[in-house]
# Entry
Amino acid sequence: MSKSTTKNSPKPLEQVPKRLWIQSDDAGGIQLEAALPIEGDKPPLRRFSMTAYTGGAMQLSGWRYPVVVDLAGLRVPKKSRPILKDHDGGQIVGHTSEIGVTEQSLDVSGVVSGSGATAQEIIATSENGFPWQASLGATADKVVFITEGKKATANGREFTGPLYIARKSTLGEISFVALGADDDTWAHVAAGAGGEQNQEVNTMEFEQWAADNNLPIDDMDDKHVASLKAMFDKQQATPPPTVPVPPTAPAVSKNDPPPDPAAEMRAAAAAESKRIAAVRKVCNNEHPDIEAKAIEEGWDETKTELAVLRATRPKAPAIHTAPAVASERVLEAAACLSLGFDENKLTRQYGEQTMEAAHPMRNIGLRELVAECARLEGFDVPRVFGDGTATIHAGFSTVSLPGILENVMNKTLLAAYEATAIAAFDLCSVGSVSDFKEVSRYRLLGTGGFEQVAPDGELKHGKLSEQKYSNKADTYGQVVFLTRQEIINDDLGAFMDVPTQMGRDGAQVVDELFFTLLLSNPNNFFSTSNGNYLEGATTAFGPDSLTTAKTQFRKQKAGPGTNPKDQKPINIRPESLVVPVELETDAELLMGSAQLMIDASGTKTKIPVDNPHRNKYRVISAPHLSDTYFSGASGKAWYLFANPSVISAFEIVFLNGRRTPVIERVEAPPNNLGMGFRGYLDVGVKEQDPRGAVKVKGEA
# Structure
């Protein structure tokens, strides 16, 4: 008698913790930034930023195997989340201001807004170099188990089981933790903060079975998936048919009755009738082609059910479904196309695939952008915009809309900033400061110089002294709001005129600071005592006065000081000729002319001579020099400047070296129905070395 092999029944669903902790696997940990200046008497707030998760597998307490959180299924309820210490609700550190979820990382930034001892501890220990790391609390809404040897994809990577993948989860609180310092303590925190074992795990066997049978369960409704799951469970629990044993010639006993051919035929016919009846029941007169093929080819009930399910699953052309929701990056690229950004530059930045997806939306307006951002984050917005109340409310509640607008505004601002000429950059050195306190710059003065070495080889001792200059950065900026009215008007270009103007304003404030300082002649910077000032009727701009000014510039001394060697020339050449717009044409003609016409000796006849100033200087003209808006302006005064990299008469400083303005989202006040953005630039200008420039008054 042959034995049949029975397949084991499916294992019951495993229980895992409902809560999970996303541990930071970024070696950089948390970056605590400089204090954020705010208005009023309130103390400044410290900012922080972190890469909280980079999509890898984690070994978490309460989970038998490694855990991967699928970032595509991570839901962020709102942008502002609490920041705690060690997941303790009583230890408040601050709150988040931005949470960015990409395919492979979870990035978080915020402010240390807590006022208690915990927040102060975080700040103090961070400044002392303590390596705080991030831990994010979340709820596991849907978990699948990848069996050993099986592969699955999440966060743009392929993982091999055994492991868990949290396909759907919801972000909760975020904590500063000292991971690795005490594993037992961390395990206690993880286990004691709500680790109830109440989340069922779906095994990958069913999903793999569906994939092997070409059944896309992600596209099916719950009814079809439940039917397939029941079929899978039934198939798993049913023993496979006994493997038939090849017939052999049995020993015939004289007492055995001969086989009854008629009985065998009746049994075979009955089995076939049952099979056909089962096939017809499954097809239910709705799938005649499947029914005929199943009867002809001897399909059993299970195979027929699979064929019917494939035939009845939803098909995209036949179902009126909502259009696919574009990703945040695609929407951002579409907004840039709508504003007329160079498509080749955008392709280099976003990639061809993103640009192809964005191209159909290249004329996107504010209405559609707000609606698409709402759909991207799961909001059900009306197909008809109407008065816009529902759509605008949903869009303003998203994380993606302000992020897209902020990025596009920054691009618009930067383009306008770079397109605006900044004369100060050609005339000043550029430095960096780390805060808003006044900083000192020092120029070392060598008062000895090289001297001939005596026969005994002894070098003479020189002396060093120093000359001190100062500088500091201040903040210049403004706040704008995207209002409900602008969204209803659906003019993205009109709104982007604001960051365009911000970019121009950012460039103009640098020149305004410089020329205001230049014309004010701070601390008698241009003076005869400094050897860098000329005045009188003969100083009106022309070839002769330019020769005089050049000579004055070339005779600058090493000083200050009274030692003989302080009076040595430093041999610095002027390179820039700075004139008001009234003298711009005369300066350009003088620089471009090959010859000059001068009076012949003893006659009124003009004779040509070679122009010694031809192409010697770069002409820089600025309306600030003669505009009455600026105190000290003159249409006759002009200047010579040295190359600022050789000797700098003025210095521009930027906070942390950032030369371009910044745009950030700000919370709108309750009485403002809109979304706020602030643009600002941290910059300062100060006079430095008077030997780097000469001023010519141009009149008596």
Q: What stands out?
A: The mean pLDDT is 78. Residues 14-203 form one domain. The CA atoms of residues 19 and 54 lie 19 Å apart.
